[in-house]
Specification:
Layout lengths: L1 H6 L6 H13 L3 H13 L6 H13 L3 H10 L5 H13 L3 H13 L6 H14 L2 H13 L6 H13 L3 H10 L5 H13 L3 H13 L6 H14 L2 H13 L7 H13 L3 H10 L6 H14 L2 H14 L4 H13 L3 H13 L8 E6 L2 E6 L8 H17 L15 H9 L2 H12 L6 E5 L5 H14 L3 E4 L4 E5 L2 E2 L6
Parallel strand pairs: 3-4
Antiparallel strand pairs: 1-2, 1-3, 4-5, 5-6
């Protein structure tokens, strides 16, 4: 229709450009949208705020963040819709820090915030696991009386769950005047991530009692909860129920959850057979779950097979090489370890170094293993040495099996003392006042020795410690962990 208008020399206006750009969003048709952008600019409508907002929506939803940023800067008189569309574009495409920064700028300029924008910036906070920023935004939500909005409430539940405060997520959820499927899914997923598998299933049962029908995502959350909690029979039951009671066709995510469920429980042969009978070609997520389980349970041969399949699917994934190397190292197959490392070197691949970070007074402090770059290094190492001594006196022995290097036993013990999460914890103990939980993030899976050590330290110093690794949140308190030592 728009092309017909042009051929008939019918004059365009702002409404025409907004309508056709919205159509490009719905198709989606990025190339045509860019052409219309150029035409609108030539026609003098490029600076119109409504046309600009339509462009922001197009570029944000098509993943063209830089184009959206340029279009945003070209709008001379931006309104609340402009800011909201830009923040949403950032959040949808993983530019979470930009989303939060733009939200702050929006507040400084006195622009009124909509419920849509609150939902977007809370999504960004969830992506950053930025608990304190999320709490500040929550206070703004309450001031503007959007806390009763179902979409904002759902975003708050998701943010608190992904930022390490499941108690706050539960409180927001319980106070919501109405809930939709997104709210329930966020609550179930949050419980799963925090090691509360049985509680996640209780929320699932409550959801059904409230008359809500679970969807595809719900069952991904439920099966993940069963996997994280080791509820094998429950997982099997809900997988069958998904198909038989709700008519939902399992997807790759559901199959990967079942492989993970069986693998974590040590049922490696059953997991392998399951992958052979499913109607889909096994994905990298499925093979990755099986490989991780082989690492935990020490099945070197099956782990090698899983790694070879992953090499074919994603040859540039360093994590696969590292996991395979770790399996060989745990079996003292040092020649095989060297072969894997040589393979990585030949293709120019580098292992991602373990890193932990902690936020104190609006500043992020990061640590690597044996790191001595921090200004408080002397105090950090002294505190760790003191705590290590207390652990030895209490009969705690470091598990040197977690040091996957061909070195002497004493060297292995020394390596374990100063892992990145321990350094971050020591800094937190030195810097964060008593009574406040210490929250640490790690880019890799926490090693078993650090897990045991932090349980002991949490009891010794009387502090709650929350560590988020690549798999889940660990809440350490009184020599226990929320994961039940199953992760």
């Amino acid at each position: 229709m728009f092309e017909q208008m042009r051929r008939a020399n019918v004059e365009n206006n702002c409404i025409t450009f907004c309508s056709v750009l919205n159509a490009c969003v719905n198709i989606p048709a990025l190339d045509q949208g860019k052409q219309i952008h150029a035409l609108g600019f030539k026609s003098g409508f490029g600076v119109d705020v409504n046309v600009g907002n339509a462009l922001l929506d197009l570029y944000g939803k098509c993943g063209c963040v830089e184009d959206a940023r340029i279009a945003f800067d070209e709008i001379p008189a931006r309104n609340a819709v402009s800011w909201g569309a830009m923040i949403a574009g950032y959040a949808q495409n993983g530019y979470n820090e930009d989303a939060v920064d733009s939200f702050r700028r929006m507040l400084r300029e006195g622009i009124e915030v909509s419920e849509y924008t609150f939902s977007s910036v809370l999504k960004a906070c969830a992506g950053l696991a930025a608990l304190e920023q999320g709490r500040q935004i929550h206070s703004n939500v309450i001031k503007t009386k959007f806390d009763s909005d179902v979409y904002v409430g759902s975003a708050l539940v998701d943010m608190y769950g992904k930022s390490g405060s499941i108690d706050d997520a539960c409180q927001v959820f319980d106070n919501m005047p109405q809930r939709n499927i997104v709210s329930w899914n966020a609550m179930i997923a949050g419980c799963s991530q925090h090691g509360h598998g049985k509680k996640a299933l209780q929320f699932f049962e409550r959801m059904q009692s409230d008359g809500l029908k679970p969807n595809y995502i719900t069952f991904v959350c439920v099966l993940s909860a069963c996997s994280h909690a080791g509820l094998v029979e429950k997982g099997r039951f809900y997988f069958d129920s998904m198909v038989e009671d709700y008519g939902i066709t399992p997807g790759a995510e559901h199959y990967a959850c079942i492989v993970d469920l069986l693998g974590r429980a040590g049922l490696l042969g059953e997991a392998e057979e399951f992958m052979k009978i499913i109607p889909l070609k096994p994905t990298a997520s499925m093979w990755g779950a099986l490989l991780g389980a082989c690492r935990v349970h020490g099945n070197m041969e099956l782990g090698r097979q899983a790694a070879e399949c992953l090499f074919q699917l994603d040859p540039q994934d360093s994590g696969t090489h590292v996991l395979l190397s770790n399996i060989y190292a745990a079996a003292n197959r040092w020649d095989d370890v060297e072969k894997v490392r040589s393979m990585m070197k030949d293709i120019g691949m580098k292992k991602e170094p373990g890193c932990s970070w902690i936020g104190v007074k609006n500043k992020v402090h990061s640590f690597h293993a044996n790191d001595k770059a921090h200004p408080l290094t002397k105090e950090i190492y002294a505190l760790l040495d003191k705590l290590s001594g207390q652990m030895k006196e209490a009969g705690h022995v470091s598990d040197i099996n977690f040091v996957l290097l061909d070195v002497e036993e004493q060297q292995k013990e020394d390596f374990l003392c100063y892992h990145s999460e321990k350094l971050a914890l020591a800094f937190g103990l030195l810097s964060i006042p008593p009574g406040i939980p210490i929250r640490i993030m790690k880019n890799l899976r926490m090693c078993g020795n650090c897990h045991t050590s932090i349980k002991f330290i949490s009891s010794t110093v009387g502090r709650e410690v929350v560590v988020r690794d690549t798999n889940r949140f660990h809440h350490f308190r009184d020599n226990t962990c929320s994961c039940g030592d199953y992760w």
